[in-house]
């Protein structure tokens, strides 16, 4: 944690306009996909971002590389605010930050051979001038991801899912990046293959001194690979802590519910554990609840503050940041969970009117 | 007599100009009333094709199904299309992985649930709608009156899966087949659905066949687990035994390759090498042999038999030994 941050994101926002109208493209609202996230990743570290679909974790990853242009905020990469960079300067910086996508079959052009897929990046940055050196580099990268040199002449469909993901990783590595954003790198793969790719990512990190931002919905995979884990809910960070600390003692009610929901392949543990079942679904990010975004589903929600005051991400313990007004009280057991009525959530319009009175029978 | 007894079920797909391919290759298992049985395996192991064959939902052409599927002693494979249509939805309900593609997008939820009741129980529209409302309520859909009139795209993924479960349960089937019912859902929603399924099995006494690739789901839900590999059952046992001492090298390999929240962080993952592309046909030996660390010469001399030693049924010549775990 003492290492210098390679990437620092300050109050990053990515809002997508919702357009409507026949003659004029009127903007009728915004989807607040990422709404004020700050985090920093030390050089050589791995930051794991978890959350459910629609929480904005992928948008954050894309926004960080400016693949999706952020609406507001700063992205400091190696001491430089890359949001201030213009096209060509940004393009040159892109060499240093690459992305690995979820589905290798749809992120690899089926009509390009592996060689052409890999050389493309080198050409774009004017690095493919010396033929012998290029061919050496290709072999070197393929070897580092565990593919034979004969793979160069093949096409993506000739490989299995795990091998395809290796090609996707090789493509990200070919330019010698410092930061890799991996968006769900293993979720499309079979269980036995997932472990191969996770181990590969770890080996590459130690041999090439890479910095990772790993985005995944699988909490067990993230715990395995990341040093620091951030939990996102509806565009904001709910909690952030070292991996051991977060999983040992989650402080945010959402993190608690998430952890308790993960099935563990151990019948003895499964028989004994108590699940915190959340009521209802994720509210729409176009119309997020005011105050704490989680208060509509939170079993610990209180009548004061939760509904009208947005909790800041504050450091409750060293290195453990939580966005909950009542984190300490909940941790000490002074606030008990209560029933939450599931409410209607429409995918387009968001939740129905809030009930006037939340009725927590809680407090001491 | 078990409720469902699958005997030597095989499904062979044939395509012109290609070798016939046995997706399911002599699978046998049985399900008692009130029991939850898991079919576990990775993509291509034949778990979904097994469920489609039981339900008689495979296409008529291009494949041949052999063996027996005895439901209450009656062979479902011998029934005509009409007879099967009567049983499907009434005696056996099915829940699919992707609720959006299993629901009709242009028909309101309420009509789709009521339709099952009208078809199988001869209820009229008013009665079936009233019952549909109750069903939606029972599976935990808030404000069911409003939901009845809504279309699938208007509700969330978790709600769609609940609606699908409501349809499957409409006639109180004695057997429910769930094919990856939570794979498309987020973990918090998955927890809701799994809890619901568990309550339904306990509450109604119907049997459940759970098809999944997720060992965590199996650990919490299934009484008996069948592990499938390349179309054959390779290990069958009670869940506590399976997870305490996975003895087939494939099962053991799966357990060692998943990161687990119940083990200390930093526990190394040991993947299974290669991929399913490396398999050899069963008739030449054990299909898993090319990926197996315990492989012997005998493994390449014909299909190993499924042997039940009282602890587990195992298709392996050289199982993994767990001396300490088994003793304790």
UniProtKB/TrEMBL annotation, chain A:
InterPro entries under this entry? AAA+_ATPase, ABC_transp_ATP-bind, ABC_transporter-like_ATP-bd, ABC_transporter-like_CS, Oligopep_ABC_C, P-loop_NTPase
One molecular function GO term is:
ATP binding
**Domain of life according to the entry:** Bacteria
UniProt keyword terms in alphabetical order: ATP-binding, Nucleotide-binding, Transport
- Example of a GO biological process term: transmembrane transport
- What range(s) does the ABC transporter domain occupy? 9-259
Gene3D superfamilies reported in the protein's UniProt record: P-loop containing nucleotide triphosphate hydrolases
**Which Pfam families does this UniProt record tie to the protein?**
ABC_tran, oligo_HPY
Name the PANTHER family for this protein: D,D-DIPEPTIDE TRANSPORT ATP-BINDING PROTEIN DDPF-RELATED, TRANSPORT ATP-BINDING PROTEIN
Q: Which NCBIfam families match?
A: oligo_HPY
Q: Give the UniProt family note.
A: Belongs to the ABC transporter superfamily.
The entry's protein name is Dipeptide/oligopeptide/nickel ABC transporter ATP-binding protein
TrEMBL record, chain B:
| Recorded topology in the membrane | Peripheral membrane protein
* Domain ABC transporter stretches: 4-255
Assigned keywords, A-Z = ATP-binding, Cell membrane, Membrane, Nucleotide-binding, Transport
- Predominant cellular place of this UniProt entry's protein: membrane
The record, for NCBIfam families, names:
oligo_HPY
Similarity-based family: Belongs to the ABC transporter superfamily.
- Tree of life domain: Bacteria
GO CC annotations on file: plasma membrane
Which protein is depicted?
Dipeptide/oligopeptide/nickel ABC transporter ATP-binding protein
The UniProt entry, under PROSITE patterns, shows: ABC_TRANSPORTER_1, ABC_TRANSPORTER_2
Record lineage = Bacteria, Bacillati, Actinomycetota, Actinomycetes, Micromonosporales
Q: Which CDD domains match?
A: ABC_NikE_OppD_transporters (cd03257)
InterPro entries per record: AAA+_ATPase, ABC_Ni/Peptide_Import, ABC_transporter-like_ATP-bd, ABC_transporter-like_CS, Oligopep_ABC_C, P-loop_NTPase
What GO biological process terms are annotated to this protein in UniProt?
peptide transport
Tagged with keyword Phosphoprotein: no
| Localisation per UniProt entry | Cell membrane
Give a yes or no for keyword Iron in this entry. Answer: no
Q: Which residues cross the membrane?
A: none
Which GO terms of the molecular function aspect are on file? ATP binding; ATP hydrolysis activity
User: What Pfam families would the database entry show?
Assistant: ABC_tran (PF00005), oligo_HPY (PF08352)
């Amino acid at each position: 944690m003492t290492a210098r941050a390679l990437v620092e994101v300050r109050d990053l926002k990515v809002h997508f306009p919702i357009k409507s109208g026949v003659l004029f493209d009127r903007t009728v609202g915004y989807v607040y996909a990422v709404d004020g996230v700050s985090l920093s990743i030390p050089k050589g570290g791995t930051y794991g971002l978890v959350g459910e679909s629609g929480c904005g974790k992928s948008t954050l990853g894309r926004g960080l590389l400016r693949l999706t242009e952020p609406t507001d905020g700063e992205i400091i990469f190696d001491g430089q605010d890359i949001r201030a960079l213009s096209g060509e300067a940004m393009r040159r910086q892109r060499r240093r930050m690459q992305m690995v996508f979820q589905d290798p079959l749809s992120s690899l052009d089926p009509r390009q051979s592996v060689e052409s897929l890999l050389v493309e990046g080198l050409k774009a940055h004017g690095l493919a001038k010396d033929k012998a050196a290029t061919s050496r580099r290709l072999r070197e990268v393929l070897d580092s991801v565990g593919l034979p040199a004969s793979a160069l002449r093949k096409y993506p469909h000739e490989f299995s899912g795990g091998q395809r993901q290796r090609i996707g990783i090789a493509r990200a590595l070919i330019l010698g990046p410092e930061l890799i954003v991996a968006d769900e790198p293993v979720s499309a793969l079979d269980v036995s293959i997932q472990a191969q790719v996770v181990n590969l990512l770890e080996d590459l990190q130690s041999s090439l001194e890479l910095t990772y931002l790993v985005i995944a919905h699988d909490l067990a995979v993230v715990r395995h690979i990341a040093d620091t884990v951030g939990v996102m809910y509806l565009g904001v960070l709910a909690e952030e802590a070292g991996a051991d600390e977060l999983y040992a003692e989650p402080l945010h009610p959402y993190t608690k519910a998430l952890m308790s929901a993960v099935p563990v392949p151990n019948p003895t543990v499964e028989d004994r554990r108590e699940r915190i079942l959340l009521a209802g679904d994720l509210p729409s990010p176009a119309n997020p609840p005011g105050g704490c975004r989680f208060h509509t589903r939170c079993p610990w929600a209180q009548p004061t503050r939760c509904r009208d005051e947005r909790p800041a991400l504050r450091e409750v313990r060293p290195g453990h940041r939580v966005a909950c007004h009542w984190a300490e009280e909940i941790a000490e057991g002074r606030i008990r969970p209560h029933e939450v009525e599931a409410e209607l959530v429409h995918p387009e319009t968001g939740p129905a009117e809030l009930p006037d009175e939340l009725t927590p029978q809680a407090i001491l | 007599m078990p409720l469902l007894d699958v005997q030597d079920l095989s499904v062979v797909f044939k395509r012109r100009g290609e070798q016939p391919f046995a997706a399911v290759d002599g699978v046998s298992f049985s399900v008692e009333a009130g029991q939850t049985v898991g079919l576990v395996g990775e993509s291509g192991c034949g778990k979904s094709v097994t469920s489609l064959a039981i339900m008689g939902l495979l296409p008529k052409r291009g494949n041949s199904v052999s063996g027996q599927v005895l439901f209450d002693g009656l062979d479902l494979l011998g029934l005509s299309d009409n007879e099967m249509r009567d049983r499907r939805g009434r005696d056996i309900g099915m829940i699919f992985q992707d609720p959006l593609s299993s629901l009709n997008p242009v028909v309101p939820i309420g009509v789709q649930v009521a339709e099952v009741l009208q078809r199988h129980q001869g209820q009229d529209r008013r009665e079936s709608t009233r019952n549909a409302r109750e069903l939606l309520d029972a599976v935990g859909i808030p404000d069911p009156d409003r939901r009845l009139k809504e279309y699938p795209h208007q509700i969330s993924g978790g709600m769609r899966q609940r609606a699908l479960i409501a349809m499957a349960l409409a006639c109180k089937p004695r057997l429910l087949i769930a094919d990856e019912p939570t794979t498309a859902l987020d973990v918090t929603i998955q927890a809701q659905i799994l809890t619901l399924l568990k309550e339904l099995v306990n509450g109604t006494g119907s049997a459940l066949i759970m098809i999944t690739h997720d060992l965590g789901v199996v650990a919490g839900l299934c009484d008996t687990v069948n592990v499938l590999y390349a179309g054959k059952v390779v290990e069958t046992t009670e869940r506590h035994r399976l997870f305490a001492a996975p003895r087939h090298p494939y099962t053991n390999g799966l357990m060692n390759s998943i990161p687990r929240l119940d083990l200390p962080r930093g526990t190394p993952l040991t993947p299974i090498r290669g991929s399913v592309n490396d398999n050899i046909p069963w008739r030449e030996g054990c299909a898993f042999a090319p990926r197996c660390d315990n492989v012997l010469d005998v493994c390449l001399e014909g299909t190993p038999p499924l042997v039940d030693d009282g602890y587990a049924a195992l298709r392996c010549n050289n199982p993994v030994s767990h001396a300490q775990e088994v003793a304790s």
